[in-house]
Amino acid sequence: MEAGLLIKPEDGRASYDRFRNRLMIPIPDSRGRVIAFGARTLEEGGQPKYLNSPETKLFDKGSSVFNFARARGPAHDKREIIVVEGYMDAIALDQAGFPNVVATLGTAFTERQMQLLWQLAPEPVICFDGDQAGEGAAARAIDRMLPALKEGHSFRFAFLPEGNDPDDLVKAEGPEAFASCLADAKPLIEIVWHREISAQPLDTPERKAALEARLERLLESIGNGRVREHYRREIKGRLAQLWAVQRPQNPRFDDRAAPRGRAPARTGFGRAPRALPDQVRRIRDLPTSPRGFAITIILSLLNHPWLLERFGEEIAALELRAAPFAALLDELAEIILTEPEVTPDGLADALRDSRHAKLFDRIAKESAFSRISFLQPGTPDEEVEEQFRDLLFRWRALPTLKRELLEIAPYLSEASDAEFEQFVMLQEQVANDGVAEAHEDAGDREAKERLAETIARVRRERIGLNRGRRT
Asked: Which of 57, 158, 190, 213 is 20 to 30 A away from residue 233, measured at CA?
């Protein structure tokens, strides 16, 4: 009775077997000891279809993960754990060659279950059905996962084809189809972003503000400060990109805008264009190194101190790799904050009296960046603000643009000559941005080399094609 195997009716009738006419599945604890049972009905149309033991002194559903003990070894070997909803799916996947699988017994994710899963792998892959119910379940899981995140530990989301659960997919299309879904698993940040930008149209200032407010509440729910800050930076960069894509074309940056009313032409990429001209426009005047960017920021604040109040949060979040420039920027910001009415001349005098005098003089007198138009005295505040905001956006966008280059590369052979040249120009500018310098890791270097090889190959093919046409 205490184990939940028997049910004693309150009306005095004889006790009976809780799991009669059911296939019983043992539910072990993390050490492999049986603590409960799950059971599937053997009767046609029998309800409920699945039934678990009630919670007992031994069995707490929210603290249990089915198949934990058996999956521990394979999960550590593969550095991956697959998480499904029910034990029948877990059994089917184990039989199909995925021994690193566990099930949450149909419960919403609890903090205890998340801690157990992280004992098996740092980024468990959670499998959801690819229908609306699956997307809804994934969206609900976000709110429980964010508060528990910590350094190096998160979750990935794999969505199965609509109408399939893991067992159905493996039986219909084989283990390879399920493995393909695992390979396409999305990180948690992608699910967060997709959920929030899909919640409502973003066609008014109020709706855009509502999106930012929702994202801010989610960020505040992340308990780990370091993880929260990285999420904040990622979200800020994505918002900057989103708003930049939605903003009207600025003729000062792009004099090739299509005539009004004309739809953008489809490109030879075989899908919607990747807006290469817009990307080129974003970075056309961007400093080509962290050093140049740091100098431009410093000169911006020197000539227009009020920018610090307007863009204080964005400036505080900057990560300048060159320590001397970072120290000079800190000193400059400290002076402005201490003396809000300070003039550009007053700032210059204060910096010449500081320990950064030598570096400041070199920047102020010798830097070519001092000739940038919006840094000049007398530039209207509106123009200064717009160009400074664009400078911050374009710098933050560089890592994303680099990823987009790699995504576009496989389609280069289908691009028109003009698109190909635009791509090459964009790649050359981004390659010189200074983000990938001598300290870049092997993965960055390999990706860069592959991209260069692709461009060279496509260029050779185009040269051969043009020669063939001439003959």
From this structure: 158
Same domain as 210, residue 80: yes
- Together in a domain, 167 and 315: no
Residues 190 and 327 in one domain: no
Return d(Cα 146, Cα 343) in angstroms, integer.
45
Q: Please, are residues 430 and 283 in contact by the beta-carbon 8 Å criterion?
A: yes
Q: Is the dihedral of CA 76, 79, 85, 91 positive or negative?
A: negative
Contacts of 342 (CB under 8 A, 6+ apart): 305, 335, 336, 350
pTM summary value: 0.54
Count the Cβ atoms, other than its own, within 10 Å of residue 431: 16
Residue type, 228: R
Domain count, the chain: 3
The sign of the CA dihedral 163, 167, 169, 171 is negative
Where are the alpha helices (H) located in 339-411, listed in sequence order?
A: 344-352, 357-366, 381-408
Q: How many angstroms separate the CA atoms of 378 and 376, rounded?
A: 6
Give the pLDDT confidence of 367-409 residue by residue, as tens digits: 666 667 777 777 888 888 888 887 787 676 666 666 666 666 6
